[in-house]
Design a protein that fits this description.
heterodimer; A: mainly alpha; 3 helical TM bundles of succinate and fumarate reductases; 9 helices; globular; B: alpha+beta; Ubiquitin-like (UB roll); Fumarate Reductase Iron-sulfur Protein, Chain B, domain 2; 2 domains
Amino acid sequence: MNLLLKFWSSSIGKKWLVALTGLALLGFVMAHLAGNLQMFAGAAKINAYAEFLHANEKPLWVARLGLIACFLGHIIATLTLVRMNRAARPQAYVLNRHVQAKISTRTMALSGLTVLSFIVFHLLHYTLRVTDPRFRTVAEGGQLESVFDVYRMVLLGFQNPLLSGFYILSVALLALHLSHGISSVFQTFGLESKRSALWMPKAGRFLSLLIFIGYASIPAAVLLGFLK
Amino acid sequence: MNLHLKVWRQKNAETKGHLVDYEARNIPEDCSFLEMLDLVNEDLLSRGDEPIAFDHDCREGICGMCSLTINGIPHGPSETTTCQLYMRKFKDGATIYIEPFRASAFPPLRDLTVNRSAFDRIQQAGGFISARVGAAQDGNSILIPKTEADRAMEAAACIGCGACAAACPNASAMLFVGAKVTHLGSLPQGQPERERRVLAMVKKMDEEGFGNCSNYLECEAVCPAEIPVAVIGQMNRDYSVALLKDNL
């Protein structure tokens, strides 16, 4: 306990918390993507997957609570750090220039906040299903065959080009956020060396690009009519 | 060459500062940036005005005393200290913004001078070796692998000028502390105090009110000693290991 408190009170400890929770959230992002990509395997496959996830409510809620904890930890630690960083430079430069700071690094707050608002909408949209009356079962006046008719729900949802555009933009910003985050965790954990400093940012960008392509492919495929 | 200067003037820490316009005329392009300021000051003095206060000492790029944020970049556009920056780097007729290094841990003194004693206090917290290591010839009897000697030497090049903290959008001093920790922690003489050192220096760094590293890498870009940002990774590793060992 003493160790954790000491760690949290230091600047490096807070960065560890941001990095650890970020890694856990990255794990979720990849697992969620693997699940979503089953859209391309047909309605039966993804609907069965949805049913499998909900077959046992207990582990599902453990995972959900864990995710919420990571999410809150990530935000609280970041906000604490941001407050310290702001206080560290009370008088701003009149002329402020960057020499080599990357776009992804400079836009972490913007990309993070967009992803946050996206997640809120995404939960309302596909998890709680309060934004679209068609996402109810036929018996309840909607268009889904059952609660687990995920395939049809996603199809109906992404046929709206505005909504699909917002999803694609959000995952693009998520990828931008991750490309900075992935290479930064190595530094925070002290795994960085001069040699690895050369490939880690590339690895971060590559993985983020894959995540972007994976997520964006679903609304794009619906809009282009590959999925119907 | 003729230049338009916008120089930060501030009477002391209690008063607010602001940019004041000056015209620097007939400046030889082989002047260093500090010599250019000397010429401007001579002109100001001849007119009975207050000269611009700025820090300088060795003027040969090794002491770390000169500072200045020139056009938004600490030490200006070349990867050297301000004293090694020459006016030929600028175009005739250019407008140059000259501001002090800005960080809450570097409180303003006057005009372009700030108090960088925070770095001294971090150094005093643990940036030293107290083991008796003998005289100069004894150094040669301690064999050190070339790769480790190189790593220590690279980090030891830090002159503690404070440009890293001044360039960092978070005003973080982690490149400085990382350099000291890597320099001393890479050598056999530094091993006995390695863990104590990193714990004490990071604690002091936090207490002094510096920000945290967000990997902007601006520090590495402006460092006149070309300290690589990998020293921050080294510091993070050493700190985490030391804290674990200290508390288990």
